[in-house]
Amino acid sequence: MKKVIIGIHGLANKPEKDLLQRWWRDSMAEGFKMHGVDKILPDFELVYWADIIYDRPLDPFERDVKSEYYLDEPYVKSAGVLEEETHPLRQKFNDFISERLNKIFLNEDRSLNYEFVTDMLLIRYFNDLELYYSIQTKTIRERIRERVVQTIKKYKGYEICIVAHSMGSIIAYDVLSYLLPDVKIKTLITIGSPLGLPIVTAKIAEEYKIYGIDHSVLRTPPGVVGGWFNLADLKDPVAINYRLSDDFAPNALGVAPVDYVINNDYQIKGTKNPHKSFGYLRSEEFSGIMSEFIGIIQMNLLQKLFKNVKGILKKEPDLKNI
Fold first, then answer.
1. Are 75 and 29 in contact (CB under 8 A)?
2. pTM for the whole thing?
């Protein structure tokens, strides 16, 4: 069966689709090379939705750093500098903060407490997410989801791996839970995901009610059949609740989130960004998961190529055309 990777980008404005799509693919290929994965990436398509919110993309040729279209974090190759992989004190701190946030902002029925505070936080720090959830801009949410729906439908008959970064993981979860619950997704990979934040789990529970789903327990989308892998850097502020296995129960197939604490090595001009997609996409853990998804397809391709070569060699030369 043919395989395809479908990417969904995250918050904030982006460079134009073709460039961002190439950078995502370059990041994954770089990770393969860094970690000794001798495989070829299958088809890849990025679901690009920044243009639904922003009037024009970030410009890699813009030199005015004050311009709203200035691209300050392009794809750059890894500097090859890795920090220690375990951060026990930071992990305990993140666990403590996540637990306190849930107790403060979530009621027992998963509705939001102090909703006015969370609305203010959305407006101040997560403009795209605020637009996505706002009733006044419902058409934005519908248009973004529809792009994901149409891209998934385009690959009917393929074995699909969805890679969703940041807010893209919310979009992927919503589409797979409400709009395409019967579509089989082999592998779901969330990177730098805010799905564990109280405001997000509350919004999911709220929409569960609308679709008549039991909202007492949040679950892995029903169509995810192979695995849900969640990658988070402990220094990533968007993924501070890095352990999604605490928030989402298995689906009917027994698929539950598997959490990986990773090191996001993205940095530019000495400035690190542990939330950047490129660092997640070339991490060792991501490369390993993607290698498993690609699996035997590469062997099948080699076998097919070998058979074709053998067939050509066995053919008698056509002397009339010499």
1. no
2. 0.84
